[in-house]
Amino acid sequence: MNAEVFFTPDAAVADIEDGSTILVGGFVSAGTPSNLILALKRSGQTNLTAVANNIGLGDLLDELCEDRQLSKVIATFAIRASGTRSSRFEAQYRAGEAELELVPQGTLIERLRAGGAGLGGVLTRTGLGTMMAEGKQVLELDGESWLLERPLRGDVALLKAWRGDRQGNLQYRQAGLNFNPVMATAADLVIAEVEEIVEAGEIPPDGVGTPGLYVDRLVQCEPIPVRWDG
Amino acid sequence: MNAEVFFTPDAAVADIEDGSTILVGGFVSAGTPSNLILALKRSGQTNLTAVANNIGLGDLLDELCEDRQLSKVIATFAIRASGTRSSRFEAQYRAGEAELELVPQGTLIERLRAGGAGLGGVLTRTGLGTMMAEGKQVLELDGESWLLERPLRGDVALLKAWRGDRQGNLQYRQAGLNFNPVMATAADLVIAEVEEIVEAGEIPPDGVGTPGLYVDRLVQCEPIPVRWDG
Amino acid sequence: MRADPGALGRLIVASSTAPVSLSRELIALRAARELAPGSVVNLGIGLPTLVAGFVEAADGIRFQAENGILGYSGISDSDFDADLINAGGQPVDLLAGASFFDTADSFAMIRGGHIDAAVLGGLQVSARGDLANWYVPARGGGSVGGAMDLAVGARTLIIAMAHVTREGEPRIVEVCDYPLTAERCVDVIVTDLAVIDVTARGLSLRETAPGVSVEEVGAWTGAALDTSGPVREMSL
Amino acid sequence: MRADPGALGRLIVASSTAPVSLSRELIALRAARELAPGSVVNLGIGLPTLVAGFVEAADGIRFQAENGILGYSGISDSDFDADLINAGGQPVDLLAGASFFDTADSFAMIRGGHIDAAVLGGLQVSARGDLANWYVPARGGGSVGGAMDLAVGARTLIIAMAHVTREGEPRIVEVCDYPLTAERCVDVIVTDLAVIDVTARGLSLRETAPGVSVEEVGAWTGAALDTSGPVREMSL
After folding, report:
1. Strand partners, A67
2. Which range marks the domain in which residue D115 is found?
């Protein structure tokens, strides 16, 4: 069950297929797999669906729009309420060239968790009485209304962690956790970029944020700094 | 938001009311709040419902049956399939004096998690086509059947951690995590016994297993060793 | 990052179409005063972020960020660390006793009712406390982030916003015509003109901004407003 | 804790009502041979626990315990640590690269299909692979632990059990009359008499225990058994 170590992010993503659904970890600048995203850009795969917290907030996910690689984005933050700068994705969305499914953050993470944990869905109040409830089943239970949210999975997950060991165990830094540990459970192929690859045992058992069995591929990369300035 | 520090487990549980539902952390010997359980025994409160992974596996929860304090147990492991020794709970259950709700482990933890996370329930395959599905709603979604499991909460949670700080942050040792972190989220009053109370900041931010906002009361106790020998 | 309340008088601003009003900083200052000592608070992106600059360290208020932090004190002045940001992407400073967790645990905390208060921005609030703050129909698409979960889960929801739009249209209305974030979720509205409580019987005026009359607040409010209670002037 | 396969011959046992059969240790040894190198395996309480003693370190098999451990190698001979146990309460030794997590994450792993194989005990297995292993009607109450989640979630489910009850009644039956753990979940049955695959067309005999004939296995089996495939003798 060792993870396969790749020497370049390009090699690690080379066999992702056109039309794949890609889970992309990270939250703005924290825990964001920028090296893998840029490798995916260079790979040229198209018709991709990206599932991510955000696109166009200083992240490099928006780079995939330069060559129109994204046909759909499932995210919590994609179109700015104000501001002069517009992301490439926003322009393509407005032109009807790319699809957007906006999901509340707490619902997005629960849908991914359900996808990874073998659950058929969860009931939440979030979104009740809003546009988010359109077309979804509402259950009345003991006098309360609940919105049924269904699982979400990816063909591939692209993650960023601080360190990874050869068994695939991942250790995160600070708020670099965010969507990464859950996305690790919810894709058929899990690829992680890490700042350092270490031997098994160097990450203490209580410091493992993602157990190794979830991780298929590791690549050591110098992190690419990104920042959102609003 | 500091946790209140008590000097004895007896003082920490003194105001638990008759008829309360008590979540009890731990898994056989690991992370089991034996000091708090024995304090609850000495307190004499009755008509309690205990929610725990196990009763009668070397744990001290069974001690609460000596004075018939438990009217109901919700657990995954309560009646042994074989073996000569019988727990007090088992005897009371067989005599019709105490009620048992048996729940699969993965369903018990998800019901507790839903109770703590503001979810109205989860859909699982676990228990479909078995006695566990009796009286429960089955949803057919996209040609698959799912069992609807509803949230579970307690009035009180009794937890065991390794260290706690004055803000209520808890750090667990090894497999001492088990049910404790989720139970911390799912009760109105959360009481934790710890081996050591430390100052805020001594538990590193990435070593916190239960964030302090969940914990109301802390008591430092020498752990009571328990063991199941089958 | 701590503002000087003594210098805030000059921050009262005027525009041609809207009333003379408090600045964004003063709205944030007044919203900060709503927070109970020792409470756990989540701050939305934009104006609410400024609230962190107006809480006293002695009050022991701890901020929670959706991305997985409990216990940051405010926006950091030190070097940017990409992995140590709040949900708005801003660098933050940690208090002793802070903790990190993943997004699933973060929203269990939010949705599960464990956050004492959230301060969010608003586009519209209705007479019964419905909130609209994520979708501008003219722009489309929207960005919801954690707003819907916070609106449903925070024990107290404080909306900090301008009382009217730039065009002078009331944001406090009988019924929202912007798409909702959540129904019946708002507890308190803090604006540049007033502090208004949302009660079971509707909107109740609690405070007016310095130099703003009860009548003026009423005129700029698009919903029935109970002004019969004791109405004080905001102390800033 | 590693048994010596060379000394296992004496472990073949006999009883008055049941056939001459392999011991529990030999069933565990044979079940261990079903595990692929490098796989992640969960072992049920009782007989399956013995499987840990029969895997080779070189195979890199890692055991997962429901209570929140990935990467224990087997039962520990060292001092008892109350916080370092498997789901059966037994002390365990950790491999390099082990990890701890809470019960929610543990069952996300189990239910989500991330465990390569589980070895569980059985009371009955039906012709279509239904499993009954948690409730003895005569005793009542039951103890389910993680069995239902493992039966649903493990990619491969191996049942290790005695072929017949102490009274000589078949445990492999057309339809279970004990309450089910899960429907259509069993892939392989390893008993003291045979190795049987559960296929889409029913039960298929793969191996017989040393000295046990195909006919004897059929006689002690309470369901239709396809014996037409290549049937070998177990190598132990």
Report:
1. none
2. 5-233
Domain of residue D216, CATH code: 3.40.1080.10
Q: Chain C: give the shortest CA distance to residue B46, in Å.
A: 29
Written as one string, the DSSP assignment of A80-117 is -SS-S---HHHHHHHTTSSEEEE--HHHHHHHHHHHHH
Residue-wise pLDDT tens digits, C7-66: 444 445 555 566 767 789 999 999 999 999 999 999 999 899 999 999 988 889 999 999
The shortest CB-CB distance from B117 to any of C94, C95, C108 is to C108
pLDDT score recorded for residue C10: 41
pLDDT value at residue D10:
41
Q: What is the interface pTM, i.e. ipTM, of the complex?
A: 0.95
Which two three-digit tokens encode residue A139? Answer: 């259950």
Residues above pLDDT 70, as percent of chain D: 92
Domains of chain A as residue ranges with CATH: 4-119+152-220 (3.40.1080.10)
Residue D233 has pLDDT above 90, yes or no: yes
Chain B closest CA to D108's CA: distance in Å?
A: 8
Q: Count of CB atoms within 10 A of residue D229's CB?
A: 11
Using DSSP, state whether B106 is helix, strand or coil. helix
- CB C40 to CB B213 under 8 A? yes
Average pLDDT, integer, range D83-88 = 92
Chains with 3+ CB–CB pairs under 8 A to D are: A, B
Chain A, 126 to 145: residues with Cβ < 8 Å from chain B are 139, 141, 144
Q: What total number of domains does chain D contain?
A: 1
Interface test with A, best of D42, D55, D59, D70 (most A CBs within 10 A): D70
Nearest residue to C109 via CA among C145, C64, C148: C64
Per-residue confidence (pLDDT) for residue C20, from 0 to 100: 66
